[in-house]
Amino acid sequence: MEPTIQSTLRALPSVDAILQLLDQYIETEGIPRTLVADSAREVLAQLRAELLAGELAPECVLDEIETRVKRHAQRRWACSLPRAINATGILLHTGLGRAPLSPMVKDFVMESLEGYSLLAFSTKTGQRRERHFHTDELLAQLTGAEAGLIVNNNAAATLLVLSTFSKDKEAVVSRGELVEIGGSFRMPDVMFQSGAIMHEVGTTNKTHLRDYEEAINENTGLLVKVHKSNYKVVGFSSEPSLEEMAALGKRYDVPVYHDLGSGALIDFSRYGLFHEPTVQESVAAGAHVVTFSGDKLIGGPQSGLIVGQRDYIDRIKKNPLMRAIRCGKLTYAAVEATLKLFLDEQYAVQHNTTVRRLTEPMDVLKKRAQSLLKKAKPLAPASATLALAEDITFVGGGSMPEEPVPTFVVKIQDTQEAPEDLALRLRQCSPSVFTRVQDACTIIDFRTLGQNEIPFVLQALRCVWEATT
């Protein structure tokens, strides 16, 4: 006798019965029993709804329960930040966590994770000490500044500097530098939140040194220069150099702050790329305080780095906001490890994942692309063609916005599947593989794809193509 919907509904097991059935599974997987119970309730509710809607045959229900509850529990228990493969070519991909951390950084962070750590304690005195010591001397050594500290991102660093030196005072800034970057971060809004009184000078395309000088008064707290990270003003345009602004600030005893945005610790023009202003150049030019990101061209974790003259850094440390935006032990460990890679530039080029991928020669990328192409072609359906090609990509993250970076790609074109659909199915693999769609093709870009990640891409391609045959 065929089971009916009503008889199947009555036969559905209770949550307790499902938990007893999954006792061994719960113990083996280490998933909390409460979480599995919640999954069982949700699965039972879903099965009832599918039965009543005629979406599931009654004879299939009991076979579905155990599998669905396990799958649901595993999905809820799994990390919501799993590994992803970035084959988009965008090196500092905001949605994918920006800079990929280097292996050495992982080792430093793991050491800090295991038990307690010397975050803010001196073994010599047995007393508490400032946590800034972890990176202070290192930042000074690398940049030429007298001192340095870190906070949780460059927006926080900007807010902190403006609050320290311009609260209820004027911060003089060029109209051409009132930037908006990703996430609707606007310099005027940050100034407002910091308590600074924004004093705009110049025009969008031209600001002269005299504009800054004429703006200085008894209530001037700061002269601000902002690196236009993600746009350019070209043609009939000019602005004073940082050296000129520093000299002006010194003459009137007004500190000069340079918001460098992405920041860079090496001159990328030596590797055939566009010159991005370096932190060392800003310090040498005489800026009293410089801020920049740790998770962009530095290749570290999300953080904001502040360097400058020691008396100004000491004033920043005393700002009450400092406690609200300071970093924890994991960020300190990751930043310290990342910065140490730059003690030798060639070592950084070889071992800092972000720097290495950005400066990697084209012949290396071509060899990697050929390796994947050779292995992927036999997996492809007859309707798909794969081809090697030279292309361009961009750094991302507001860094070098108009400067194309050469790369090699594998283009996939399928007469039976839209490129957007293939890209979607690759994203749904485990780990997710992110590509880009361009010129009616799904593009795998090797500027961001490491040799050790090729097996994951091949595995994903195999899965999606086998599912279509």
Structural description of this entry:
With 469 residues, this protein is α/β, with parallel strands linked by helices. It folds into three domains: 5-77, no CATH class; 84-93 and 359-468, Aspartate Aminotransferase, domain 1 (Alpha-Beta Complex), CATH 3.90.1150.180; 103-351, Type I PLP-dependent aspartate aminotransferase-like (Major domain) (Aspartate Aminotransferase, domain 2, 3-Layer(aba) Sandwich), CATH 3.40.640.10. Helix content is 43%, strand content 16%. It contains 20 helices and 15 strands. The strands form four sheets. A seven-stranded mixed β-sheet has the order 2-10-9-8-7-3-6, sandwiched between helices. The protein has a four-stranded antiparallel β-sheet with strand order 11-12-15-14. A two-stranded parallel ribbon has the order 1-13. Strand 4 (180-181) and strand 5 form a beta hairpin. Helix 4 (33-52) crosses helix 5 (61-77), helix 7 (133-143) packs parallel to helix 15 and helix 8 packs across helix 9. The radius of gyration is 28 Å and the shape is globular. The model has no long low-confidence stretch (mean pLDDT 92).
Descriptive tags:
469 residues; alpha/beta; Aspartate Aminotransferase, domain 1; Aspartate Aminotransferase, domain 2; 3 domains; seven-stranded mixed sheet
Q: Give the CATH superfamily of the largest domain.
A: Type I PLP-dependent aspartate aminotransferase-like (Major domain)
What is the CATH-assigned architecture of the largest domain? Answer: 3-Layer(aba) Sandwich
CATH top-level class of the largest domain: Alpha Beta
Radius of gyration: 28 Å
Hey, roughly how much beta strand do the residues contain?
15-25%
Approximate shape: globular
Low-confidence stretches: none
Number of strands: 15
